Amino acid sequence: MEQITINSLIGCGDCLKLIKRLPDKSVDLILTDPPYNLGRFMHKRGTNIKGMRDNHFAYSGWDDMEYAQWSRVMKRFMKECARILKSKGALVMFMSIMKVETIIKFAIDAGLYYKTTGIWHKTNPMPRNMNLHFINSIEPWLYFINDGHTGTFNNSGKSIHDFIETSTISASEHKLGEHPTQKPKFLLQHFIEILSNEGDVVLDPFMGSGSTGVVCEQLNRHFIGFELNREYYDIASRRILDRQ
Ligand SMILES: C[S@@+](CC[C@H](N)C(=O)[O-])C[C@H]1O[C@@H](n2cnc3c(N)ncnc32)[C@H](O)[C@@H]1O
Q1: Cα(231)–Cα(236) distance, rounded to whole angstroms?
Q2: Each residue of 85-116: b (16+ CB within 10 Å) or e?
Q3: Closest residue by Cα to residue 203 from 62, 9, 6, 20
Q4: Residue 58 contacts residue 43 (beta carbons within 8 Å)
Q5: Could you tell me the distance, in angstroms and rounded to a whole number, from the CA of residue 229 to the centre of ligand 1?
Q6: Cβ–ligand 1 contact at 182 (below 6 Å)
Q7: DSSP letter at 182?
Q8: Tens digits of per-residue pLDDT, 58-77?
Q9: For residue range 178-193, what is the model confidence (pLDDT) as tens digits?
Q10: 177 lines ligand 1 (CB under 6 A)
């Protein structure tokens, strides 16, 4: 009989509650893509997103908190990151460019060491309103270290820039996750390979359709993932089992 080994532990619920169950200094890398909280901002922009409501993050219901509430969530989240990360463990978080400074402040206040703001450039972004303005094609990512200034950095002697360029997810990858802000596996693999080793524990507390978990399974990392939405959680669970 074929034997399947699953390296993942996932939970459906509020990550701020579930994360409390993780012991102090138990995680090597947190790689996550939390809500950027741009829903309300996007609603006021008068763009053509009305026609795309079915699968647009601005109408997903998880990206439109009051700013003060979102700030409280992010501050509490940073404190938990500092508690559960091992010494010299890393946090990489995708974020909207408008919120970069705020997130850096919350992380430093929680005791994390700020390393880098990098850019993910999408080579094929949606050319929405291309005759009216610059096409939005970048997403920043922020990199922090807990309890130290450097951690695992598997660069194999090569210089690695703070800029990564990939296409957005292909139609076939999107079909597996069906998430409005699904990250390409290749992008997540870049960070997991550089910032962790085989057998390490990687956490994604806002895992969406489980893309980080799929890559962890493929790269022999232990994965812990949380997701509030039952539908996305079920998709993540199936993707992680199928490793795709
Ligand atoms: C930007 S998406 C992540 C998408 C993911 N990177 C992927 O590739 O599918 C953020 C996710 O966080 C979830 N979320 C929002 N608040 C949460 C919370 N308090 N606890 C757990 N998940 C939460 C949302 O339901 C959403 O699926």
Answers
A1: 9
A2: bbeebbbbbbbbeebeebbbebbeebebbebe
A3: 9
A4: yes
A5: 8
A6: yes
A7: P
A8: 666 666 788 899 999 999 99
A9: 999 999 999 999 999 9
A10: yes
Cβ(39) to ligand 1 under 6 A? no
3-class DSSP state of 206: coil
For residues 82 and 37, give the distance between their C-alpha atoms in angstroms, rounded to a whole number: 22
C-alpha dihedral over 234, 235, 240, 244, to 10 degrees? 160
Rounded mean pLDDT, 194-211? 98
Confidence of residue 41 (pLDDT cuts 50, 70, 90): low
Q: Distance of alpha carbon 186 from its chain centroid, rounded?
A: 13
**The CATH homologous superfamily of the domain defined by 8-38+74-242:** Vaccinia Virus protein VP39 (3.40.50.150)
In this prediction the pTM is 0.92
Does residue 63 line the site of ligand 1, with CB under 6 A?
no
Residue 105 tokens, joined:
């402040």
Look over the chain and give the mean of its residue pLDDT values, rounded to a whole number.
Answer: 92
